[in-house]
Amino acid sequence: FLIFLVASIPSIVGTPISMTTKSGFELREVCGEQILVAEGIENIDFSKVVALNDSGAYLWKKVADIDFTAEDMAKMLTEEYEVDYDTALKDATALAKKLIESGVAEE
Q: Which of 10, 26, 37, 100 stands 20 to 30 A from 20 (CA)?
């Protein structure tokens, strides 16, 4: 339902992750895909491209430059999409972990 990122990382639901997006990344549409693009030389790592589907891009826009948790993102998903909270939380937790592992967000 939610996210496509470069690496296949298993979804793990557990302790809430408090995080923030790193500065220097901007969501752009490239050839019809929603891609997180590095804005500064310190953020450039061409070995990791982060592509988001519509709901992942929606969440990125909502949480960019604020502190948030997977629970916050799950609530945003239930308000925007027809999805139950448990499913939204599972997907939001997976996205949170993937954003951290790809280096575009930090705890």
A: 10
For the full predicted model, state whether its pTM sits above 0.70. yes
In angstroms, the CA 68 to CA 49 distance is 22
Alpha carbon of residue 63 to chain centroid = 9
Determine contact, residues 94/4, Cβ cutoff 8 Å.
no
Amino acid at 39: E
- Long-range contacts, stretch 32-40, CB < 8 angstroms, 24+ apart: 34/60, 36/60, 36/104
For 8-19, give one letter per residue: b (16+ CB within 10 A) or e. eeeeeeeeebeb
The helix-helix angle for 85-101 and 70-80 (nearest 10°) equals 130
